[in-house]
């Protein structure tokens, strides 16, 4: 070789090596300190400058009240707290985090959507007569259990879809009337002398009766001898739930979703967060039929661990699509429809139709 430098486009070898080293350091940095390679720990101490600052003694921490039921979950590299759920992927793709506080056990499970065999079983055996949504996370669940009093409440997709009515919802897509008018016009042109033509009722009859919006008023699957009782005077402790308490456990999952043949979206989502003194579950059914309807059904469950008291609040919101979107257009946004993808904004700007509350004390 002559040693001549060629001015060609490409990535320098040194740059590639530097990128690989940076990637390796990033991967190792995600591991707890006690699991990092010795070479990586020494490299970090040498390369990362520590700014000079006054070090305050860390206050003594009280014994954690909760118990992690997943001993393989890694601890936080800074404070040593077990991370729930675990950030690491497992094979098979399943994560079942669980935590216990006093006599309450909270557990969740996340898995992929139903495979073809599971889908056929649901369609032919478990949910006969219902055309299933496009995506069903049938193996996901959120479960809370009082082990002392043998009471539990679970949110899962199968029981939620069992609450979908097998009858016509009465909701039509925005272009349904245009379709009927165009069909009438087409047959009118084909009639001799331009005679009037009315579409026969049989041609508009729905062959498969079910609520195609998948509206479900599912409040959770309750098991045990005790039952939540109607108590509309009760209310959620918003002041306590708004406190910046440390979150010991959090999960967020979808139970089912369907895009309604590109006419909107229908989705059931469940979130849970557990603090040291209480927990909160939000199960939200969100329906948007474009240019027709907005509907949100919220179920909130709050449990006070000290009092052993359960509160469940059920709210229904519903409004015309044009009325809801007009509230966003008044804010002079460049994309008013973007807000309709934010369920929190939709709830704040959609009329409340009904509210119910239930309570149970052990």
Automatic annotation (TrEMBL):
Q: Which GO terms describe its biological process?
A: TOR signaling
For this UniProt entry, what's an example GO CC term? Answer: cytosol
- Member of which family? Belongs to the TIP41 family.
Q: Which PANTHER family match?
A: GAF/PUTATIVE CYTOSKELETAL PROTEIN, TIP41-LIKE PROTEIN
- Tell me the protein's name: Tap42 interacting protein
Query: Which species does the entry assign this protein to?
Result: Zygosaccharomyces mellis
């Amino acid at each position: 070789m002559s040693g001549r430098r060629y001015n060609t486009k490409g990535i320098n070898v040194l740059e590639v090596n530097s990128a690989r080293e940076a990637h390796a350091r990033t991967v190792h940095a995600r591991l707890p300190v006690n699991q990092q390679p010795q070479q990586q720990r020494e490299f970090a101490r040498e390369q990362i400058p520590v700014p000079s600052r006054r070090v305050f003694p860390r206050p003594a921490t009280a014994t954690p009240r909760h118990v992690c039921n997943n001993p393989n979950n890694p601890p936080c590299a800074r404070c040593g707290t077990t991370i729930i759920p675990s950030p690491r992927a497992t094979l098979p793709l399943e994560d079942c985090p669980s935590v216990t506080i006093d006599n309450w056990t909270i557990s969740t499970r996340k898995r992929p959507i139903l495979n073809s065999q599971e889908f056929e079983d649901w369609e032919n055996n478990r949910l006969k007569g219902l055309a299933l949504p496009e995506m069903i996370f049938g193996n996901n669940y959120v479960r809370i259990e009082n082990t002392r009093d043998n009471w539990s409440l679970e949110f899962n997709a199968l029981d939620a879809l069992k609450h979908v009515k097998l009858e016509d919802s009465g909701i039509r897509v925005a272009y349904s009337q245009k379709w009927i008018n165009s069909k009438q016009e087409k047959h009118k042109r084909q009639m001799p002398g331009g005679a009037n033509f009315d579409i026969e009722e049989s041609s508009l009859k729905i062959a498969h009766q079910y609520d195609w919006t998948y509206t479900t008023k599912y409040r959770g699957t309750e098991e045990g001898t005790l039952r939540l009782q109607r108590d509309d005077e009760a209310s959620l402790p918003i002041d306590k739930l708004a406190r910046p308490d440390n979150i010991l456990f959090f999960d967020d999952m979808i139970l089912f979703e369907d895009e309604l043949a590109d006419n909107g979206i229908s989705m059931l989502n469940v979130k849970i967060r557990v603090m040291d003194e209480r927990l909160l579950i939000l199960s939200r059914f969100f329906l948007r039929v474009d240019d027709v309807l907005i509907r949100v059904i919220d179920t909130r469950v709050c449990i006070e661990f000290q009092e052993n008291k359960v509160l469940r609040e059920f709210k229904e919101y519903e409004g015309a699509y044009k009325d809801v979107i007009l509230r966003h257009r008044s804010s002079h946004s460049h994309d008013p429809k973007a807000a309709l993808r934010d369920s929190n904004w939709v709830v704040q700007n959609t009329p409340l139709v009904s509210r119910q509350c239930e309570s149970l004390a052990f």
